[in-house]
């Protein structure tokens, strides 16, 4: 039997460990890992993690500016820096050989989207929403247990038995999930390609059960992991699959260790190894089982697994099965990982303090809930320094990232030899099912007997093998066409366009540059269901995600982009999302429903800057039909507060005179200090139900967190928040307004 992968080389307890050299990351000195709970830290972390990205400068995705392939075959990133070395790595695929110097020079910072602070208003309203839901849920439970004893018997202590399902998860499922259950598990039919066909259903018992109505509805599909558009029932792959079924049937009828190894299994394993740039590979019929059975065959008692906090449940399950110790580091945070490594290596195993038998770090290439791409260059530097094994789950990145679809190594231009275990699935980019493990031959030979899903479960079905083989062949250019390259480019371009457009509109969007997974933050549980239902009404199928798949506060909609999407699909989706948010998200609201009367702009002359801006804007757009009114500024910077009541009164009087005079449909605010009185007054007719005066707040390149106090005050009242002044012209061009520009 093959031996397990060699043990982690560590200092023994006899010889004291030498001081571990430190790397300063981005000039930040590594600090001691803080474990103690601190309320202020919690608040800081929460604000950082669930935050607004309102005005990112547009970055050009480097993979779109494809560099010309170099003839020098094996350029790859040296592990100890970002300099390029010429190395002979015979296992590199032809596709990976095409990686250019430009690719190898990429840094993580080029793709990382910095997460910015969320406005307190969003956080507070989200917590409040949960508070009300939880409160009402508990009140209903208490009443139910008292007055509907039979119905609630399973939640009560009965005959000495404790209730079996009375934890928070059960409460969450009954009192929160059930209310919005229609947004998940929607039955579909047909191929989940660019479009998806959804079977309509209805519930007459508040989502306890559903009944199909018999109607079907077609929607643009942003919910499947069809990154490269291979989910097809026609074309090259489908034809080959059809031929394969005629030749091999549907099943090998045995396990791999017995009589189930077909020639096509072995061919696919060679192809996968070649594609990812490793010596050998095994394939397993289920992606989830690939992780959960491989990890226990590599590590066990006395070993340590260090896992990213957002790793997929198949990894968590595998680590638990293995019996290895596990420590978790903050998502993609290399400073935290470094501190953790120092701690665990210096301390060794619990109680005995013996050195760990081996240390394996498990990360994902692309995180499917966050859209973040692993910081592989920094991870490899740490690997060189601390000597751990690196296991990368490429379920979402293989095929979808990198100039050649080769995953994260290809994306950064890093040689795959730096990653010990490469795991991936065929469910996403290849439009099939199953998973693979690629690595050195000795390790893969060991897995061929020790991996239970490989040796004891059913083998991968022939049509599935053929689908993977054909689609991988297209990505590698084996069919002699540019189809594969075109798909990869379309996907990168679609992903970049879509996320940039959403960010420009002021949405809270996660995900690194180039990620085909684009999460749009909704926070509020009420918005989750509303967003999903409204999107479906508009023919957009999108997955909404909440607890337990995400932290309870950061519910989101997750758009999965595909190379099959056309620009029209994306533009329509963006229009639908931004229009729809009028009711759903406080960030961007629609003006569509309002009819505007002829244009006549008036600007309040509050300060020289905004007057100049308004005048030049007027000259550009309005060609001289511009009147300028004066509104006193409530308080100049540095002015004493004692005069504020008087100036506020005067501002309110002037504003009400202007409002009544113009009776506008729209107020465009640029300079919150002077906007507040007029916006407050403009709310009165809305509250009285007389007229809805739209308020648009323009802050050129401002981020919510950097707004002044008055800006933050005004922000929640604005119907539409524009981050770029130039975008205003797009709105104004489309409609005739009667409005005020403040
Ligand atoms: C990171 C990761 N690993 C493994 C899996 C399991 O793959 P499969 O769905 O093919 O079983 C998934 C599924 O989405 C995943 O996201």
UniProtKB/TrEMBL annotation:
Pfam families: Alg14, Aminotran_1_2. One of its GO terms (molecular function) is serine C-palmitoyltransferase activity. Its main location: endoplasmic reticulum. SUPFAM superfamilies: PLP-dependent transferases (SSF53383). It is found in: Endoplasmic reticulum; Membrane. Keywords: Acyltransferase, Endoplasmic reticulum, Lipid metabolism, Membrane, Pyridoxal phosphate, Sphingolipid metabolism, Transferase, Transmembrane, Transmembrane helix. Residues 1-14 have a biased composition (Low complexity). This is serine C-palmitoyltransferase. Residues 1-22 are annotated as: Disordered. GO terms for cellular component: endoplasmic reticulum; membrane; serine palmitoyltransferase complex.
């Amino acid at each position: 039997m093959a031996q397990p992968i060699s043990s982690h080389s560590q200092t023994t307890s006899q010889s004291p460990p030498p001081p571990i050299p430190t790397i300063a990351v981005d000039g930040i000195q590594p600090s001691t890992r803080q474990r103690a709970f601190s309320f202020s830290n919690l608040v800081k972390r929460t604000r950082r993690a669930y935050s607004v990205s309102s005005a990112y400068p547009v970055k050009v995705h480097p993979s779109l500016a494809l560099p010309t392939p170099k003839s020098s075959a094996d350029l790859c990133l040296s592990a100890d820096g970002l300099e390029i070395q010429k190395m002979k790595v015979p296992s590199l695929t032809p596709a990976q050989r095409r990686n250019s110097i430009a690719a190898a020079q990429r840094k993580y910072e080029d793709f990382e989207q910095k997460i910015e602070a969320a406005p307190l208003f969003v956080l507070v309203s989200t917590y409040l929403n949960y508070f009300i839901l939880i409160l009402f849920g508990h009140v209903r439970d208490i009443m139910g247990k008292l007055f509907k004893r039979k119905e609630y018997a399973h939640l009560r202590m009965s005959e000495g038995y404790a209730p079996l399902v009375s934890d928070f998860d059960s409460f969450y499922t009954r009192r929160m999930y059930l209310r919005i259950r229609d947004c998940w598990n929607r039955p579909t039919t047909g191929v989940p390609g660019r479009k998806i066909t959804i079977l309509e259903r209805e519930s007459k018992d508040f989502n306890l059960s559903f009944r199909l109505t018999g109607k079907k509805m077609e929607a643009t599909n942003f919910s499947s992991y069809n990154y490269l558009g291979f989910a097809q029932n026609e074309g090259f792959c489908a034809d080959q699959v059809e031929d394969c079924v005629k030749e091999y049937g549907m099943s090998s009828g045995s396990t791999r260790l017995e009589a189930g190894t077909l020639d096509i299994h072995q061919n696919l394993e060679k192809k996968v190894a070649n594609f990812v740039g490793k010596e050998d590979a095994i394939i397993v019929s289920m992606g989830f089982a690939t992780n959960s059975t491989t990890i226990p065959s590599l590590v066990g008692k006395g070993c340590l697994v260090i896992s990213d906090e957002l790793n997929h449940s198949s990894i968590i399950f595998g680590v638990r099965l293995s019996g290895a110790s596990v420590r978790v580091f903050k998502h993609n945070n290399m400073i935290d990982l470094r501190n953790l490594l120092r701690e665990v290596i210096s301390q060794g195993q619990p109680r005995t303090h013996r050195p760990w038998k081996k240390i394996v770090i498990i990360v994902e290439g692309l995180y499917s809930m966050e859209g973040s791409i692993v910081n592989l260059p920094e991870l490899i530097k740490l690997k060189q320094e601390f000597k751990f094994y690196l296991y990368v789950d490429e379920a979402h990145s293989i095929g979808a990232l990198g100039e050649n679809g080769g995953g994260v190594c290809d994306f950064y231009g890093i040689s795959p030899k730096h990653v010990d275990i490469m795991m991936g699935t065929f469910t996403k980019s290849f439009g099939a099912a199953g998973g693979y493990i690629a690595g050195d031959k000795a390790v893969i030979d060991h897995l061929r007997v020790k991996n239970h899903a490989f040796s004891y479960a059913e083998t991968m079905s022939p049509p599935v093998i053929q689908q993977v083989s054909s689609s991988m062949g297209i990505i590698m250019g084996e069919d002699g066409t540019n189809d594969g390259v075109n798909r990869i480019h379309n996907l990168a371009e679609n992903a970049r366009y879509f996320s940039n457009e959403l960010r420009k509109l002021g949405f809270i969007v996660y995900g690194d540059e180039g990620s085909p997974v684009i999460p749009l933050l909704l926070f509020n549980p009420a918005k989750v269901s509303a967003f999903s239902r409204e999107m479906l009404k508009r023919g957009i199928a999108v997955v909404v995600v909440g607890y337990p798949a995400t932290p309870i506060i950061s519910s989101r909609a997750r758009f999965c982009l595909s190379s099959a999407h056309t620009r029209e699909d994306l533009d329509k989706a963006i229009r639908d999302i931004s229009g729809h948010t009028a009711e759903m998200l406080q960030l961007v609201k629609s003006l569509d429903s309002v009819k505007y009367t002829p244009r006549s702009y008036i600007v309040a002359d509050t300060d020289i800057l905004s007057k100049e801006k308004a005048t030049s804007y007027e000259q550009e757009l309005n060609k001289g039909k511009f009147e300028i009114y004066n509104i006193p500024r409530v308080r100049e910077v540095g002015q004493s507060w004692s005069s504020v009541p008087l100036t506020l009164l005067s501002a309110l009087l002037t504003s009400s005179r202007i409002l009544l005079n113009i009776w506008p449909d729209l107020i465009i605010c640029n300079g919150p200090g002077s906007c507040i009185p007029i916006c407050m007054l403009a709310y009165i007719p809305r509250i009285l139900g007389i007229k809805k005066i739209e308020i648009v707040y323009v802050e050129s390149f401002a981020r919510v967190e950097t707004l002044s106090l008055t800006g933050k005050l005004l922000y929640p009242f604005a119907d539409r928040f524009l981050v770029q002044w130039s975008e205003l012209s797009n709105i104004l061009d489309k409609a005739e307004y009667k409005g005020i520009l403040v």
